[in-house]
């Protein structure tokens, strides 16, 4: 009888062990699957966040580039003093004022020396290098004399070179290229003016309105 009881107990124990083993294995498999699923979700989230960050950075970079490209480039103003002194010289000659013409020529001469070609754009720098010495030559001579006749001789070539420079380095406001047909025994000469109205620097007070506008530079 005891033997029978032992056999039954052993059989029940074996059955219990067999039943518990598959359950344990299934639970482990479920836990592993859950862990892998969680890891996959975390990776997906990480990839999504990373992609979003990359896209955002790319959009910011592109926007910054567009803003930089569309931003107005500040125009160099270093030639303004040269232009201003020239027009002051022109007005002085139109008044037959040799002393004022001297002072204006000195201002222009100093302004020419100060120009830094490296601050100009390529085309302007090339034009400036071509005409700098020519402008300096005439302004130096006008600054050294007070007699209007000689001053006007140099003003002819000064105006010719200023015209060539302005054709490259365009002004902000219109500049009028004007002509006197009677100067130098009818050979004529040109000058530049900020005003369309004629105020002749070659004939001065004797014939201030002689001449005409032949071109508008703008």
User: Strands of the largest sheet, in order across it?
Assistant: 2-1-3
Q: Biggest sheet, open or closed, and with what strands and sense?
A: 3 strands, antiparallel
User: Helical element count?
Assistant: 6
Please count the beta strands (DSSP E, at least 2 residues each).
Answer: 3
Order of helices and strands: HHHHHEHEE
Distance between the termini: 127 Å
- Given helix and strand content, the structural type is mainly alpha
Q: Please state roughly what percent of the residues sit in beta strands, choosing from under 5%, 5-15%, 15-25%, 25-35%, 35-45% or over 45%.
A: 5-15%
Could you name the ranges where pLDDT drops below 50 across 5 or more consecutive residues? 1-27, 63-74
Average predicted local confidence, pLDDT? 79
Query: Rough shape?
Result: globular
Q: Helix share of residues?
A: 55-70%
Rg result: 45 Å
Please specify the SSE layout and strand pairing:
Elements: H1 2-70, H2 80-94, H3 98-114, H4 122-143, H5 148-168, E1 175-180, H6 183-186, E2 189-193, E3 212-217
Antiparallel strand pairs: 1-2, 1-3
Helix pairs in contact: 2-3, 3-4, 4-5
How is this structure best described in words?
The protein is mainly α and 218 residues long. The protein has 6 helices and 3 strands. A 3-stranded antiparallel sheet has the order 2-1-3, with helices on one face. Helix 3 runs antiparallel to helix 4. The longest helix is centred in the N-terminal third of the chain and has 69 residues.
Question: What are the defining features of this structure?
Answer:
mainly alpha; disordered N terminus; 6 helices; 218 residues
């Amino acid at each position: 009888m005891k033997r029978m009881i032992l056999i039954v107990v052993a059989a029940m124990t074996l059955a219990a062990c067999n039943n518990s083993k598959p359950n344990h294995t299934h639970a482990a498999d479920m836990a592993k699957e859950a862990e892998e699923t969680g890891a996959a979700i975390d990776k997906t989230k990480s990839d999504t966040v990373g992609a979003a960050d990359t896209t955002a950075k790319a959009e910011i970079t592109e926007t910054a580039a567009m803003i930089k490209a569309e931003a107005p480039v500040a125009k160099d103003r270093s030639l303004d003093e040269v232009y201003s002194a020239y027009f002051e010289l022109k007005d002085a000659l139109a008044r037959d004022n040799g002393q004022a013409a001297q002072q204006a020529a000195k201002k222009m001469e100093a302004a020419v020396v100060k120009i830094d070609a490296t601050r100009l754009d390529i085309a302007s720098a090339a034009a400036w290098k071509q005409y700098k010495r020519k402008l300096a030559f005439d302004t130096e001579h006008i600054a050294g004399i007070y007699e209007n006749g000689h001053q006007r001789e140099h003003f002819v070539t000064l105006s010719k070179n200023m015209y060539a420079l302005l054709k490259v380095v365009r002004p902000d406001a219109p500049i009028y290229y004007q002509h006197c047909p009677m100067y130098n025994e009818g050979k004529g000469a040109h000058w530049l003016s900020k005003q369309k109205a004629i105020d002749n620097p070659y004939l001065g007070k004797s014939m201030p309105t002689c001449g005409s506008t032949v071109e508008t530079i703008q």
